Amino acid sequence: MNARVGVIGTGYVGLSTGVCMAHLGHDVVCVDLDAAKIEKLQRGQATIVEHRLDELLFEGMEAGRLRFTTDAATAVADRDVVFLCVQTPQGDDGAADMRHVHAALAGLEPHLKAGAVVVNKSTVPVGSARSMTRTLTRTDIRIASNPEFLREGTAIDDFLSPDRVVVGCDDLAAAEKVAALYAPLGATTLITGPETSETIKYAANAFLATKLSFVNAIATLCEQVGADMVDVAKGMGYDRRIGADFLKPGPGWGGSCFPKDSRALVHIADQHGYSFDLLRSVIESNDQQFDRMAAKVRSAAGGSLHGVTVAVWGLTFKAGTDDLRDSPSLEIVQRLQADGAIIRAYDPTVTGPRPGLPDGIQCCETSVQACDGAAVLAVLTEWPTFTRVRPDDVAAVMPGRTIVDGRNLLDREAWTHAGFRHLGVGR
Ligand code: UDX
Prior knowledge:
Rossmann fold
């Protein structure tokens, strides 16, 4: 059954939720405090890079099922379910900062429709739904948890083909109301208490981060013992208990979720008297991976980076997004800069200085231009376009002949044939 849905916050999570809910047939109003953002969305223009977003934005607005406004009070007045998708940035102690969530809820409360369900879609500390319920003065409103498991770049497809839908609420009718929104997807649905649902989100992300730190550790070992991580991952992945996904070694994991959520979970555990040492080492091991990648580039340059030009392909935390938040590439670039390296970079989505980009990076217009005068080429994001660069074009402008391929992306044979030394991860 179609419902009236409100979405507060039009960042990655909110916008994906809004357009997908409209795609499922619901009537959706998205709200943001940022008037410039809302105006752009009202013109039908996407405010983030996300596959299929333009298409769904157009579809929802054309059908009259998707609207954007800065007026939260009016927007929520007739909404059955309101998703809170505001930012929960990391505080100094690692805990998620709930200021925006609380402010949004307090602002909405007097205007909500009788019996409305307010849903935390943002990743919030365990116990948030319950503590938010305690702050309410109205008794007809329910707070539920419905974590998102969306990957940037494939958020729309992930939303529309979920592995599962999780809803946490003590009030079964309210939980079912939220779960019913997803009914057209026919997904596996799990209804739990709010603490369980909130923990599922952290546990899933922390487990995936653990998987990657483990893979990167095995990759380091592979380099020492002469094994090939690409085949080791295949051999591990055939075991159904392990699974073939998320086994690619790389320059370390990053992005807007894993670093923040894993630190937050360590903090939550600390607050409850449990020292989550396993997860602490997972995070530490990831920092070591950044160090190892930087050391590999240093050694490829002959031991010192002082005044040495390094070409960097890829600045975003992964391909398919323009997001620089907690990007492993930037972690590594900053280590190289600290050693005196001059960085010439190319990334299809980063054309010049912008917030989050460290100073001193020369952003080039093409992959080949970034290699001009470089002693070493470091491939740090797996953009498919890099695989189409011709080795001879790079050889013509780059005096050095070593590639540190942090994503095992390039065709080793073709580049070796063109005279390059190709150093991958775990091989
Ligand atoms: C992640 C979770 O996957 C998603 O469920 C959650 O809701 C938000 O956080 P996202 O941050 O978009 O999504 O990135 P993801 O695609 O999971 O990759 C995270 C990091 O791991 C990236 O830095 C990526 O490059 C790295 N990674 C991923 C690897 O190094 N190897 C892999 O095999 C997979």
